[in-house]
Amino acid sequence: MEYRVKSMELAEQGKLKIEWAENHMPVLMLLRKKYSESKPLRGLRIGAVLHVTKETAVLMKALKDAGAEDVVLAASNPLSTQDDVAAALVEYGIRVYAWRGMSSEEYYWCINQVVRSNPDIVLDDGGDLHATIHREHLDLADKIIGGTEETTTGVIRLKALERDGLLKYPVIAVNNAYTKHLFDNRYGTGQSTFDGILRATNILIAGKVVVVAGYGWVGRGIAMRARGLGARRVIVTEVDPVRALEAVFDGFEVMPMIEAAKVGDIFITATGDKAVIRKEHMEKMKDGAILANAGHFNVEIWIPDLESLSAGKRLIRPNVTEYKLRDGRRIYLLAEGRLVNLVAAEGHPSEVMDMSFANQFLAVKYLYDNRGKLPPKVFNPPLELDERVARLKLESMNIEIDKLTKEQEEYLKSWTLGT
User: Fold this and answer.
1) Are residues 21 and 141 in the same domain?
2) Has 217 been labeled as part of a binding site?
3) 341 is in an annotated binding site
C-alpha cells in the first residue's frame, strides 16, 4: 500500500489519540456501527483533503467500515497534521499522504496523490482539492460522482466556480449544515482558537484588549470566548453593515481596523479574505502586539508587509515568531499566520467535530445514493440529514425534546385558522 507519513513508529501513540476521539464522538460512532453491517458504500473510492487529526481519523475509519474500497487522505494545511494519527491510519488501511511541516510543493504533491487514486467522491476542506481537479484534471472531474466541502472558504471558492459555469460535479456544502456551522464554526473555533493562542504564548487574556476581524460564525465564537476569558475590551472590525450592527447589539465595540490597531493587544482574523491586517495597521500597533489567524489560509495577516517593516525576526517560542520592527517595536506572529487552533493546538474538540463529520459521512452516502441525479451545483445539505444529526446528538447527551401533537401539526399547515 502506497503512503507517505513522517514515521510509522508513531502509530501506537496515534491509536490512543483516535480512541480518545472515538469515545467523544457518539453520533459518528453510531453511524459507523449501523452502516458497518449493511456497507452502503461498498466498492466506493474516496479521496479526501482534510486536516489530519484524530477526529478526521474517526471519519476515515467510518467510511472504510461502511464499505469504501479505497480511502486516500491528504492534509488540507501544511502544518496541521498530527503525525502519530497519520501513521495510525496507515495501519488501519487508509492511504495517507501527510506530515507536519510540508513545503508548498510537497503539499500539492500530496493532493495530487489523492487525485491519482481516481476517487468517485471527494471530500475537501478549503477547496484546494476541488480547485486542483478543475484546474489540472478535467478528465477526472467528468467521472466524479460528487464532492463535499467542509469550510466557509471552500464554499466561497466553489460558488465562484459554479458562477463561472465551470463546476463539473455536484458538491454538498457541509459547512452550511446548521449542525455544522452553528456549532463547529462558533463553539469549536471559539474555544480552539484560544486553546492555540494560550498553548503558544501562555499569556493572560483577562485584562487584554482583543480585536476580532470578522463577525461571521467564527468571529462570533471567538468574540464570545474572549469575553468569557475576561478580556477588558473586545473589539470587532467588519465590512458588512448587518454583521457590524449585530456585533454592536451583542455588546461588542465596533470600529475600523485602523483605529483598533492603536489599542489592541491581541488580533485574531476570521474573515476568509486577504490582507485584513496589513502595513498601515501594523505601523500603528503597540509594542508586543500578538497576531493570530483563525481563517483557513495564511493570507489574512499580510506577512510580506510585516517582513518589509522588520529589521529582523526570530522564533522566540514554538509557534511564536518575534518581528523586531525598525523603530524598536515588537510584533508577535503566531503559527506563521496559519490556522492557530490547528498549528499550535489540536483543532476543535471531538464533541463538536462529531456533528461536523457525521454530516460529512451522511453527505457522502447521500451523493452515492443519488449518483447521476444531481446537476453540477453547490447544494446545502438536505434538512432531514441536519435534523437527524441533531436528534442523534441530543440522544447521546440524554436530552429529550417535545413532539408536536397531530392538532398542532394541522394548525401549522392551515391558512384558515386565525384570531
Assistant:
1) yes
2) yes
3) yes
Please check if 294 is assigned to a binding site: yes
Cβ contact 332:282 at 8 Å: no
Parallel/antiparallel/unpaired status of strands 266-269 and 209-213: parallel
Does 184 count as an annotated binding residue?
yes
336 and 230 share a domain?
yes
Q: Is 238 annotated as a binding residue?
A: yes
296 is an annotated ligand-binding site residue: yes
Q: Is residue 220 marked as binding? A: yes
Q: Is 310 left (phi over 0), alpha (psi -120 to 50) or beta?
A: beta
Cell readout for 144 is: 466524479
Q: Is 116 marked as a binding-site residue?
A: no
Element housing 266 (H / E): strand 266-269
The domain that holds 379 is classified in CATH as: 3.40.50.1480
CATH code of the domain in which 237 resides: 3.40.50.720
267 lies in the same domain as 141: no
125 is in an annotated binding site: yes
Is 378 found in the same domain as 327? no
Q: Round to whole Å and give the CA distance between 22 and 341.
A: 20
- Known binding residue 216? Answer is yes
Q: Which of 327, 343, 359 is the last residue of a domain?
A: 343
On whether 218 is known to bind a ligand per the annotation, the reply is yes
Sheet strands (E) in 189-232: 209-213
Annotated ligand binding at 405? The verdict is: no
Are residue 376 and residue 253 in the same domain, yes or no?
Answer: no
219 marked ligand binding residue: yes
Check: pTM over 0.70? Answer yes or no: yes
pLDDT in tens for each of the 419 residues of the chain? 899 999 999 999 999 999 999 999 999 999 999 999 999 999 999 999 999 999 999 999 999 999 999 999 999 999 999 999 999 999 999 999 999 999 999 999 999 999 999 999 999 999 999 999 999 999 999 999 999 999 999 999 999 999 999 999 999 999 999 999 999 999 999 999 999 999 999 999 999 999 999 999 999 999 999 999 999 999 999 999 999 999 999 999 999 999 999 999 999 999 999 999 999 999 999 999 999 999 999 999 999 999 999 999 999 999 999 999 999 999 999 999 999 999 999 999 999 999 999 999 999 999 999 999 999 999 999 999 999 999 999 999 999 999 999 999 999 999 887 77
Has 305 been labeled as part of a binding site?
A: no
56 in a labelled binding site = no
Domain residues for the domain of 279 are 188-343
Question: Do 104 and 241 fall into the same domain?
Answer: no
Domain match, 215 and 259 both = yes
User: How far is Cα 50 from Cα 177, in angstroms, rounded to an integer?
Assistant: 18
Residue 175 assigned as binding residue: no
**353 and 308 within one domain:** no
**Tally of residues, the chain:** 419
How many domains in the chain?
2
Q: Is 180 annotated as a binding residue?
A: yes
